[in-house]
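To: structure subgroup
Subject: Chain for Friday's discussion

All,

I'm putting the inputs and outputs inline so they're searchable in the archive.
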Amino acid sequence: MRRDRHRVRHRRVKPETRIRRDAAVLVAEDRRFSGMDAAALPIEVWGPGFGPLIHLILGQQVSIEAADAMYGNLQRSLGTVTPEGVLGLDEDTMRRCGFSRMKAEYARGLADACLDGLDLDALATQPDAEVVDALVELRGIGRWTAECYLLFCLGRRDVFPVGDLALRIGVQEIGGLPTQPTERETGEHAEVWAPRRTAAAYLVWQGYLERRGRGASVPYR
């Protein structure tokens, strides 16, 4: 039997592993991250789907803890979070879960879009820009939510959501900037971390939380 001694099996690297490796490189190379522990970063990739995107909608303009609590309420009400389940909830139940009137409308709109043919699993195979373009067409989903979907749900490697307030403040703090950078300026500062901007986002978030005594928090889970 002929054996190919030179055949090498390539295993697909999990997104969490790749992001953590990138973080270790940044910690070693960028003094602004000096002393941080890449191995301890609370990196999570949820996977694509309706439920994770609803979680991000709930997370718009609220704290990490509040978003987690609201999504937990929704899971207790529905079990698995599905478009059909969300559309079946009455106003009182959605309010008890933590939905504002507008976020309830956004969630129902997303549910309708999924039932009308929006395939989030298929969308997950597309390039970053195409994913963002498709999601921002939906009411209530802006660039911040779409980019967080790339980062937290799809585990894309080079995403830095410049619309995130904590990231902008974090960039200001680690860079010693006199004022908080704009979204455009934040993007310019983050360019130096390409193609590892997702790892940089995790490091900036973690530093922001640690300086506020919230180091155990995860930026969405």
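Points worth raising on Friday:
The chain has two domains: 15-43+159-210, 50-153.
Confidence is low (pLDDT under 50) at residues 1-6.

D.
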